[in-house]
Amino acid sequence: MKTDEQKRIFEEWLALHRGLLFKVVRAYAFSPHDQDDLFQEIATQVWNSVPSYRGDCAVTTWIYRVALYAAMAWSKKETRHRDNQSIGLDERPILQASSHVNPQLDWLYEQIAQFDEVDRSLTLLMLDGFSYREIAATMGISSSHVGVKLNRIKQRLAEQSRKEQENAI
What are the chain's domains? Predict the structure, then answer.
């Protein structure tokens, strides 16, 4: 594939699926500096993946898979890095996908951030309306396993919401 064609496809994918990438970034990186770093890492991986896309699945599924795997790898690398040294935070927020504040959405992202990597990925895919079959194909697990894990995640979120509402009263 020629570089011009790769660039055209990459820019098209980035423009069409920027919101999807921001969701993944927000679920895996929590400071503005980390979000900036992770977005750059995901964009790099999407760029690198353009020539290997064969059309066997939807572009959205492909980009989600690339973004999730990049985010999981980045998360592991950052954890090891942070264990070895302390890093100061930059206050430049890259993610301005939404200009309004939504406390319910913020609460949901706080909860998702506490999940392990697989549960985070499953939750994001579910929230974007992917079917169990599509999630299974993206994550490399069976559809029935997706169903079990998502039901447990929903129960966990409902229980946490219930606890917080009781504590607020």
Answer: 1-86 (1.10.1740.10), 100-169 (1.10.10)
- Phi and psi, residue 29, nearest 5°: -130, 140
Q: Which residue, 18, 108, 88, is CA-closest to 60?
A: 18
Structure tokens, 50: 């353009």
Encoded tokens for 112 = 């998702």
Look-up of token digits 């970034």: 25
Residues in Cβ contact with 41 at an 8 Å cutoff, skipping those fewer than 6 apart: 70, 71, 74
Helical spans, DSSP H, in the chain = 3-28, 32-49, 59-84, 103-113, 117-127, 132-139, 143-168
Helix axes 132-139, 143-168, angle to 10 degrees: 100
Asked whether the beta carbons of 50 and 13 are under 8 A apart, the reply is yes
| Tens of pLDDT, residues 65-78 | 999 999 999 988 88
Look at the block and give the residue holding tokens 């921001």. Answer: 22
Output phi, psi for 26, to 5 deg: -65, -30
- Compute the chain's Rg from CA coordinates: 17
pLDDT tier at 100, thresholds 50, 70, 90: low
**Which tens digits make up the pLDDT trace of 28-44?**
988 899 999 999 999 99
Kindly report the length of the chain: 169
